[in-house]
């Protein structure tokens, strides 16, 4: 009887299965934003047989993103989920050197602080290793697999017995940081934790920050990053001259004798880059990222520096006018791998550690964001292209997919992306164009110009879900990389230094002219918008020209007089613009969208995040108020409890729906 039931079920289901296979694909919808799985953090097991990585997906029941840890064999096969917590997240996994355990960060169940945890490499029960009030920032295993070094926030102000938070007392130059809050007495210190008894010992403390500790393979040293108080008389908050140090791993706080390895007056391994120094396999050398003098903090491409820890001799390696990211040594110590950014793509390169010659391993129209190298030489990439979100890929002779968390997108009809270039003021400017799904050649269509953040960043050949949704609704989407963008060298990036909204706005306008001439863009139905600096440049453009019929300006500003001292960038303002009282002409120049708001005619939707210390709501509020005073159509949307990047799924859906509605209202005539 059972066999007959199964057979009958197959007969009944077969037609529907055949229909599903031949059913036409549907376009992406706004709700699909909640289906996309973010994949990250690939890390090999010591024997190179498998990788551990992280997925981040929406938990609709609690309206949060939730991350879990997975493993997959390097040779391929079905991935295995190791953590299954329903309301908490786990991230940043690392195998122990003996391969028996995985350490990772996760949110504490009691106070939601970030703590260090450990489990067997096969999964199972989880052991919490730390209970540090301020929370753990980063960690690394000791070669003996018995200890870990970690950086964590210490000296956090504590509430009284009644639970009342103490007054916020500030005496630092930099007194705020997005996602951290006001900076008072807390500092990032280094600790060592024993995995058996969970005993925590202090390695480095005091009135300064220590970042990104990395244990040497021989177990003798720990490398880390800090600002040397003996190198300059300046307050550490007032400069960006971070340096690479090493300290003996068996030292204790009070007996520590740090040794500075990097020597230049420049930024070495800025914590913002999230790229720790890396030890050679023989523990004799370090490689790290270094930039230029502090005033070029965002604009100068990060480069490779290599040092011998015994001689302290530092050499520059493979210096080219492009950004390098995430350097790592090859298993034999003869080469250094790194991601290198080029015009509209980023790929993995293998660099000869002696000669500096560069061999690009996956040079193509895609974006490689992260990678890992196994002890046997296997390579795994975190890679995306315009048709596929980031997934884990093995790099053999070609890229071979290992994770498939977004396979459901095969059911969607996706728009294609094409590169284009044009000339403006003697400069070649590049961009990406996504045509609507129903596009008919020769027919100008309503178009949304998306502006990237940064400002030193670029649009690359990667999957962009918001673009796909706009294209599904009949819009062409344009992403121009104007002067100020990365991918084309230092001079191209610094063209906007202390002069925001000038040549970069000119490039956006010239790009719209070019695409109008190509018969693609309907000149009467153009919209513009972006987030962060993308919002700022949108403000600059609509204050310079009236051609755009709708704008969406998220987490931006236009009155730099008002943001000095109100966001986390006072040091950077002083480097680039000077102080408002001595250099008011600079502040006036870059504040023209607010000071000349009466030139704006574009209906503009302003958005901001309530707890954003990066670009606070003040900027959106002022521009909204200005346009409201001028009777220009406008609206202000504030997302409660959010930092600079929105993380609540329903807010991300809301933002997408509001953007579409705003553009539809003014571009669908």
TrEMBL record:
Pfam families, per the entry: PD40, Peptidase_S9
GO terms of biological process kind: proteolysis
InterPro entries: 6-blade_b-propeller_TolB-like (IPR011042), AB_hydrolase_fold (IPR029058), Peptidase_S9_cat (IPR001375), WD40 (IPR011659)
Gene3D superfamilies xref list: alpha/beta hydrolase, TolB, C-terminal domain
One Gene Ontology MF term: serine-type endopeptidase activity
Keyword Protease annotated: yes
Ranges for domain Peptidase S9 prolyl oligopeptidase catalytic: 463-668
UniProt keyword terms in alphabetical order: Hydrolase, Protease, Serine protease, Signal
Signal peptide coordinates: 1-20
UniProt-listed PANTHER family: DIPEPTIDYL PEPTIDASE FAMILY MEMBER 6, SERINE PEPTIDASE S9 FAMILY MEMBER
Entry protein name: S9 family peptidase
Species the sequence originates in: Dasania phycosphaerae
